Amino acid sequence: MSDSTNNTQRPFRLRKQLILPAEHGSWSWLLVPFLVGTAVAETLNFPVLLVLIGGLAFFLLRQPATVWLRARQGRGRRSDEPLALRVLLGLGGILLLCGVGLLWYGRFLMVYLLLPFIALMLAYLQAARGQQNTRTLRMELIGAAALALMAPAAMLAALGQSYPTVWLVWGLMAAQNVLGVFYVRQRIADTHERPFNRQPLLWSHVAGLVVVAGTAVAGLIPWLAVLPFVGFLLRAFWTVRQARPIDNIKKFGFQEVGVELLSGVLIAAGYLL
Predict the structure, then answer these.
(1) Strand ranges (DSSP E) for 25-177?
(2) What is the b/e burial string over 90-116, where b = at least 16 CB atoms within 10 angstroms of the residue's CB?
(3) Angle, to 10 degrees, between the axis of helix 46-72 and the axis of helix 110-129?
(4) SS3 192
């Protein structure tokens, strides 16, 4: 391939890196909870669409913010700084418009959901600024639980009021996302032949099933919502027994998205049936 061809391709790759997060699987942590929340609320109105657009804008903010911050500190390409700032301001403008729209529709409860998102963004940028690893287990667990807030956000936007099911659905989606973090990290460690303590994987899944099943016994959630967590635990047992390296990372990513979607469908169906 000629040098001229390489040079023409670099700007495209550069722009893609400026806006798309490196953790492609995190898309499902955001979108599946939104779909489940919308399905359980059985309402798709303009405020719900504002939540989707605003949530996507907030989700995409992190990457250009990080690129801009690192460029400002001399730890990234200086040429990335102007474009990253424009993308950052554009996404911020979209988020602001969506927030104003939700307030216009009287969805004042949505303001409280912004607090954990803002805290997560600040924690991430602080880690990036301090040259720390932003992909630690702690950061991923917090991010997974925070992105699951798209479920209650959709439900609050749909109906304009809070009720117990809103937060129970968030708990289910947060648990699903968090268990996914443990599983994916274990499989990646097996792929790279890195030592990894397998006990947190197993016991987090056991605890998840016990808590979800106990909530179903109390009559707070449908029994069908327990089924995905049974599957998660069986998958954890399979992974704990021996190393399970990933043969094809792209295929594995699509499989995980499929698992998240199937689990979300079962949870939503439990509420709708």
Answers:
(1) none
(2) ebeebbeebbebbeeeebebbeebeee
(3) 20
(4) coil
| Sign of the CA dihedral running 178, 264, 26, 88 | negative
For residue 67, which of 58, 59, 79, 76 has the smallest C-alpha distance? Answer: 76
Neighbours of 257 (CB within 10 A): 16
At 63, give phi and psi (nearest 5°).
-65, -55
> Is it the case that residue 30 has pLDDT exceeding 80?
yes
Give the C-alpha separation, 160 to 127, whole Å: 35
Tokens for 214, please give them: 């106990």
Cα 226 to Cα 228: distance, rounded to the nearest angstrom: 6
* Other C-beta atoms lying within 10 Å of the C-beta of residue 19: 18
Question: In the chain, where are the structural domains located?
Answer: 16-272
Relative orientation angle of helices 164-191 and 137-147, to the nearest 10 degrees: 150
Residue with tokens 């295929």: 251
Residue 122 vs residue 258, higher pLDDT: 258
| Full-model pTM | 0.86
What mean pLDDT is predicted for residues 140-162?
Answer: 90
Q: How many CB atoms lie within 10 A of CB 260?
A: 24
Residue 22 is encoded by which pair of tokens?
């490196």
For 174, half-sphere exposure in the C-beta direction (CA atoms, 13 angstrom radius) is 14
Q: 126-143: b or e for each residue (b if 16 or more CB lie within 10 Å)?
A: ebbeeeeebeeeebbbbb
Q: How far apart are the first and last CA of the chain?
A: 57
Which residue type occupies 266? L
Residue 60, both tokens: 């995409």
Q: What is the pLDDT of residues 174-229, one digit of tens each?
A: 999 999 999 999 999 999 888 878 888 999 999 999 999 999 999 999 999 999 99
